[in-house]
Amino acid sequence: MSDRITTSKLEAMKTAGEKFVMVTAYDATFARLVSDAGAECILVGDSLGMVLQGHDTTVPVSLDAMVYHTECVARARPRSMIVSDLPFMTYSSPDVALAASMELMQKGAQMVKLEGGTWLSETIHQLVQRGIPVCAHLGLTPQSVNVFGGYRVMGRTPKEAKSILADAVEIQDAGASILLLECVPEELAADISSKLDIPVIGIGAGSGTDAQVLVLHDLLGLTEKPAKFVQNFMTEADSVQDAISRFVNAVKDGSYPQAEHTYR
Ligand code: KIV
Prior knowledge:
Number of helices: 11
Shape: globular
Bound molecules: 3-methyl-2-oxobutanoic acid
Number of strands: 8
Distance between the termini: 41 Å
């Protein structure tokens, strides 16, 4: 598809100060709805472990599952860029990451996402050198929930904030095309977004990032106990398509996220 979203388009949007949008999708129907709503990116997220498979965490998600759902999404031939998560333990070394990323890219991903900072520099460098664009995920990295001892806001102490900023700079230097920041204070996310040249996508990171992402099931109001940063876009919508469009429009016109969705 000729007008497909590319990394250069996203960079140009950052430069122009235009917000862009990512939404998760795991199958062809929702990929079409997300793309038709005008979201620039579809994330085939390992959140599917929770919202589709019923697990408590993303840890049990297999590479086979990610490959299967990436293939389903790609069959919709969306205009949106397809970013697929590398699941738990599939990027523990550069070679393991290359093999796993090859599978996702060959099934239709245009970029892979992995969780972590400085320790991934060599892996990111090697992936990019071999033609695999990378989105790095910092802040609350859900695959490390067992290390954190639960889901919490990251970067509230000066030490943590400094470390997230240092990681962000390092992953950019290693060649990452996008940074995703999850559950960090608004001020820290805005500071990192202004310091980096690459686009920063936020979730629970306030309004100062270059883009926003939400999990599809959250924005459709299907989640039992949604996080503070979630808005249910179904409440005023007359269809699922309308709800996704409302989310896209709210990010673009700056009406989402509000202070009530933001951590300090
Ligand atoms: O897997 C996912 O859906 C994610 C989002 C929470 C950003 O990583």
